[in-house]
Amino acid sequence: MSAATIDELMVVTLARAFTNETRAFNGAVSFVPVCAYLLARRTHAPELVWAASSLAVDADPKSIPESTLSDGLWDGASMLSNSAYDFWSYAQGRRYNTFAFRGAQMDAYGNVNNTTIGPYASPKVRLPGGGGMADLGCMIPLIFLWSTTHDARTFVEQLDFRSGIGWGDGGDHRARLGLPGGPQLCVTNLCVFDFDPDSKRMRIRSVHPGVTVDQVVEATGFELAPSADDVPETDAPTDEELRILREEVDPTGARLREFR
Amino acid sequence: MISTGSVGFESKLRTLEEAAGEVADGATIALGGLSMNAVPMAFVRELARRKVRDLTLVAIVHGMPVEWLVAAGCVRRVISGLVSLEGFGLAPRFRAAVQSGEVEIEEYSEHTLICRLQAAGYGLPFIPTKAGLGTDMLALHPETTREEVDETTGEAYVECTALPVDVAIVHADAADTRGNVRVDPKLVWMDSELVKAAARVIVTVERILPERAFRAAPERTTYPRFAVDTVVEAPWGAYPTSSYPTYGYDGAFFEAYQRAHADPATAASFWEERIAGPETHAAFLDANGGPETLLRIARRPT
After folding, report:
1. Which residue of B has its CA nearest to A30?
2. Tell me: the pLDDT tens digits for B19-49?
3. B13-109+164-294 is classed in which CATH architecture?
4. Closest approach of chain B CAs to the CA of A85, in angstroms?
5. Of B80, B144, B193, B300, which has the most beta carbons under 10 Å away?
6. SS in 3 state form for chain B?
7. Which CATH superfamily is domain A6-259 in?
8. Is the ipTM here above 0.90?
């Protein structure tokens, strides 16, 4: 088995954060988390729930199409649900407990911008929009973030627009708003961040092979919370995880759409 | 009056051209489907060809229909949660039009927009939600997403005010000429909320069935005839998006669309040759590969 590439390392790292208690779904352009849900279900978390495109419960696609909001992802589902009632009710009622999102910008508290670069009224770049992240950031207790472009343009001190809430202004801000849980991890192409339990700012939990802590600090546009003295290297995928990801979960390499 | 049996009932069946004529300049219209799925694209193309003006377009999560209506100059304002071409990239015409100020974007989250439509459908001034708390989205339009605090519990919430829609257009599998509609399977995305929020409802369908088919399986009826004003028979009417489970989206079209937009000249000829130029829905399908394309995207039972 050849060594893991960065996309594979990110998928496996995210997959290992999911458990048999994970009840997840996915939104647009979510190839990395979709691969991770499928991989987790085929390895250590067979009871994991994943609703493809937020509607096809327990789907088991043979491969992943160009859109993670499309019917190619729904094969083998045990239920095709109705968005307004089934999906949004279970999301607000906390039956669903896990959601992964990302954006063009992310700040130290895991808040995300997918709306505009530059001012909202006169954008330099108009981005797709917040979609469901503004909602689900408020409803779902276990939030996972990922980014395939770890640099100081993506990880910024001040977002141009807060489309989706992570830990908000930090500290107990979510609790004050009456919102459950918050971001757990942020998996990037350089490292894994978790969140300081008090300030709720990102801190380095592990660095990927060949990456130094200094490189991560350099590539991050905000000040990180202090991490452990000896930051470990991100655990390598096993041969079995790589085989399942390559041969069964994503044989056509749809996840690479997020890496170009 | 078209007779459909022993009693004469008024038929709601219209052509694409007639139905598109029901949308007036300046109207607020809402499009069914989501992203790559079940969008009434044949209708959207007809609207674009008619050069309707100053539309306010409610598009909860969409891509290609926003592109076409913006490209044709039909749109003044987009009310939306997300506009993109998904794995195929950002929506080029929409993006350029917002950046130049030609089109206004009134952004909501998906759920606050659903709440606004539900409030309109239920005849309520607003529907409350926790969605959007702590984001910058609320301050974009405090008059329609008001942040309040519940006196009893002290909890913060958002009041999403009713969003009335003039015309909703949705795509479905089948209808009869009286306006009974079947979405089969029940993949209605947010279409059910649009249908209930709109003063007028136009449904394009893959096929027309006799009324007795609905009476034989009433549990499969999604929208009743009293909620539907106009029915259009439009086979492959969601192309290039999908109509599950009959056909998938045409990825090749989306790729070619994005490629053409690398350059204004190729974008213009793509627009003319493959989207707006063809006179009829059939000619449009032909311009995009005809039967060869349709056989490629047809879904087979799995």
Report:
1. B87
2. 999 999 999 999 999 999 999 999 999 999 9
3. 3-Layer(aba) Sandwich (3.40)
4. 9
5. B193
6. CEECCCCEECCCEECHHHHHCCCCCCCEEEECCECCECCCHHHHHHHHHHCCCCEEEEEEEECHHHHHHHHCCCEEEEEEEEECCHHHCCCHHHHHHHHHCCCEEEECCHHHHHHHHHHHHHCCCEEEECCCCCCCHHHHCCCCEEEEECCCCCCEEEEEECCCEEEEEEEEEEECCCCCEECCCCCCCCHHHHHHHEEEEEEEEEEECCHHHHHHCHHHCCECHHHCCEEEECCCCCCCCEECCCECCCHHHHHHHHHHCCCHHHHHHHHHHHHHCCCCHHHHHHHCCHHHHHHHHECCCC
7. Glutaconate Coenzyme A-transferase (3.40.1080.10)
8. yes
